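Private note to self, pasted from the team thread so I don't lose it. Backbone tokens:
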């Protein structure tokens, strides 16, 4: 493997000049820079990332802490982050808290030990104080998807409350009055906001939903949807539509309803939230409230890299719009009193 000295000799420049080209420090004329890069390419010279990190006090690594790596929304989000960072020559160090506060704390320890240059953080929502650990360590952080009571960090959120409102409005416009709601235990701000939108739409329609038709529980989301479909559809006066507050829950509902012999969407309409890639391939295809997953990733990346370059700028909160994606899982019914 070629050395930096051999590159300097071939380019007929000093070792210091080669170092300035590699690290982007100091002035090097365009002619000299071209000679150095041609020499590096000819000799197949690869600068040491570790050495550069020590000299420049940066690792060119960004931490990504998400709640569930096997959740389709968060895996798509991670892919968006990795793609955006790759374009800026950063590597991505991914950790998953698995919605567990203790594991979340350990993941933060790991990211700080790895000396990442910044962190894109989707919190569990259970421990708001964790975000201050990044601040105390002078590590820039961007909160995404789930808000926390922290006014000193950049945030990328989506209009979850409006999404909950839009979902109920869509079901009401299709004649549904017996509606079931299924979501996770509302420890995250996103779930709270979605339920707030649901309640606002129901209040405007002067429609009360029986408490037995609202299921908010912990657990794996697919299993929650599957189990909730059985619980809701085997009661007296079952709902004609179920609004699942994530797409993974909705797909569990579809599966559970199908196993009960329901014809979808003729016997039951189902709506989701997120628009994960699988939503367009379920049977029937899933009507959902779409979060702009890839825009969220690109925006979070942009905010974090800007924060790294300008650590003293004012924190920014970006709220991205959601949209209704109408597919085949919602059908019209005759309104009932």
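Design output:
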């Amino acid at each position: 493997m070629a050395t930096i000295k051999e590159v300097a000799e071939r380019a007929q420049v000093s070792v210091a000049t080669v170092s300035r080209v590699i690290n982007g420090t100091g002035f090097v004329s365009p002619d000299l820079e071209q000679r150095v890069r041609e020499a590096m390419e000819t000799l197949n010279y690869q600068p040491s990332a570790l050495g550069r990190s020590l000299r420049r006090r940066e690792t060119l690594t960004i931490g990504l802490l998400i709640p569930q790596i096997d959740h389709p929304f968060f895996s798509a989000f991670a892919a968006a982050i990795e793609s955006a960072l790759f374009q800026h020559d950063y590597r991505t160090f991914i950790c998953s808290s698995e919605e567990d506060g203790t594991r979340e704390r350990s993941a933060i320890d790991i990211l700080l030990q790895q000396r990442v240059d910044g962190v894109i953080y989707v919190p569990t929502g259970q421990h708001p104080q964790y975000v201050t650990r990044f601040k105390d360590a002078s590590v820039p952080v961007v909160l995404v998807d789930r808000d926390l009571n922290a006014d000193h960090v950049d945030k990328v959120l989506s209009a979850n409350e409006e999404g909950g409102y839009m979902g109920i409005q869509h079901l009401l416009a299709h004649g549904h009055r017996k509606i079931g709601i299924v979501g996770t235990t509302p420890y995250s701000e996103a779930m709270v906001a979605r339920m707030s939108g649901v309640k606002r739409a129901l209040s405007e329609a002067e429609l009360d939903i029986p408490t037995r038709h609202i299921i908010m529980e912990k657990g794996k989301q697919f299993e929650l949807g599957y189990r909730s479909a059985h619980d809701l559809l085997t009661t007296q006066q079952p709902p004609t539509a179920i609004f699942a507050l994530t797409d993974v829950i909705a797909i569990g509902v579809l599966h559970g309803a199908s196993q009960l012999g329901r014809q979808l969407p003729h016997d039951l309409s189902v709506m989701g939230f997120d628009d994960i890639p699988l939503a367009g391939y379920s049977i029937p295809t899933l009507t959902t409230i779409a979060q702009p997953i890839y825009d969220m990733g690109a925006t979070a990346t942009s905010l974090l890299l800007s924060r790294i370059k300008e650590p003293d700028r004012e924190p920014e909160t970006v709220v991205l719009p959601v949209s209704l994606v109408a597919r085949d899982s919602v059908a019209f019914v005759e309104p009932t009193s």
